[in-house]
Design a protein that fits this description.
This protein has 12 helices and 12 strands. By secondary structure, the protein is of the alpha/beta class. It folds into 2 domains: about 230 residues, TIM Barrel, CATH 3.20.20.20; about 100 residues, Sulfite Reductase Hemoprotein, domain 1, CATH 3.30.413.10. The termini are far apart.
Length: about 350
């Protein structure tokens, strides 16, 4: 997936080139408004690569972007944002009609950070997999009822264990539906590579998975490394070279971060993620999860389960302790504030351990 603001046409073309040169079979670009659509049309003039568009929160842009892409990706959890009183089935019917008219495939992309609230409310807070699974199965049924079979499904989380469990359960329920695999917000190398490898090895070795995406937080010119890493993992699996154990048991500091995309409104996010990793080195022995998210779309939801979370706006960063907001701070202030909260968290954990 391109890690640029789509309207930065030169940068987006360059990202497409980097991914294409690295061997990407499908390149995903996020679209959020009409100006993004205009930019996509220009990008298309400069590449023959297979493009999939991420419709984000505006499903009605589908008919405008479909002429330029091979696939439309929508998230069931985002369909309620626009025209909330319109039945979901009608919205999906519109997407199917657009896809048919333009010869596009579709992907039902279910993400842990943006599940339909109606699904979340049905299950206990500690069960994040069942709402994702139910959402995916419901939308498969809708597409089936509409007679549309050119689709695949993805169920992604930043926890590789949840990715494994969700995809195994889906494959058992719908073995006929192709699956796109990925650990979303896997973070920085090498940890992000390890998480991704574990999920891929455990699923692909079971015959589960048809396409993959590696999601890493990388500098602009190294975006192609995602493809290199993915192909390397596939080569190892094909050759029987496995490095993972059945479960991903992470001990110590766990930093989750997204790979950046056109939703990111300040490219300082990438530097922030790397600086967080450096600054928190002193806490690496503590079982603490810190999330660094680049945008308002998935960021708020995907930071809820972290001990400390940040999601980035154009000029400030929102800081959270679990689902609780601690306020927003400038990019210059945020590392200091994060360290203060991290020290408090370490102190409370140490006191709790001493008490036991």
């Amino acid at each position: 997936m391109t890690a640029t603001r789509t309207q930065d046409i030169a940068a987006t073309i360059r990202q497409v080139e980097l991914l294409d040169e690295a061997g990407a079979d499908i390149i995903r670009i996020a679209i959020d408004n009409p100006k993004d659509v205009e930019a996509l049309a220009e990008v298309r003039k400069h590449t023959g690569a297979n493009l999939v568009v991420d419709l984000q929160e505006n499903f009605k842009l589908a008919e405008k972007v479909a002429p330029f892409v091979q696939k439309l990706r929508y998230n069931p959890g985002h369909l309620y944002h626009l025209e909330p009183n319109r039945p979901v089935e009608e919205k999906v019917r519109y997407l199917v009609d657009v896809a048919r008219d333009h010869g596009c495939a579709m992907r039902i992309g279910v993400n842990c950070g943006s599940v339909d609230p109606a699904k979340l409310d049905k299950y206990p807070k500690d069960d994040s997999i069942t709402p994702m699974l139910e959402s995916a199965l419901d939308h498969c049924r809708i597409l089936d009822d509409l007679g549309f079979d050119q689709y695949c499904v993805s169920l992604k989380d930043s926890d590789p264990n949840k990715v494994i469990d969700a995809n195994i359960r889906f494959a058992e329920a719908r073995p006929d539906v192709p699956l796109h695999l990925g650990v979303t917000e896997a973070g920085l190398p090498p940890d992000g590579i390890i998480k991704t490898r574990i999920a891929f090895e455990q699923l692909i070795s079971r015959g589960i998975g048809d396409t993959i995406r590696v999601s890493l937080t990388l500098p602009f010119e190294r975006k192609g490394d995602e493809i290199t890493v993915g192909r390397g993992i596939l080569d190892d699996i094909r050759s029987g070279r496995f490095r993972s154990v059945p479960r991903f048991e992470h001990k110590g500091l766990n930093i989750i971060s997204c790979p950046s995309c056109s939703r990111v409104e300040n490219e300082a996010f990438i530097d922030l993620a790397h600086n967080v990793k450096s600054m928190t080195e002193y806490a690496k022995q503590y079982d603490i999860t810190i999330a660094v998210m680049g945008c308002r779309v998935n960021g708020p939801g995907e930071t809820d389960d972290a001990d400390l979370g940040m999601w980035c706006a154009p000029s400030f960063v929102n800081l959270k302790r679990g689902p609780e907001s601690l306020g927003h701070f400038t990019y210059d202030e945020i590392l200091g504030q994060l360290r203060t909260e991290l020290d408090r968290l370490i102190e409370s954990k140490s006191e709790l351990a001493a008490a036991h």
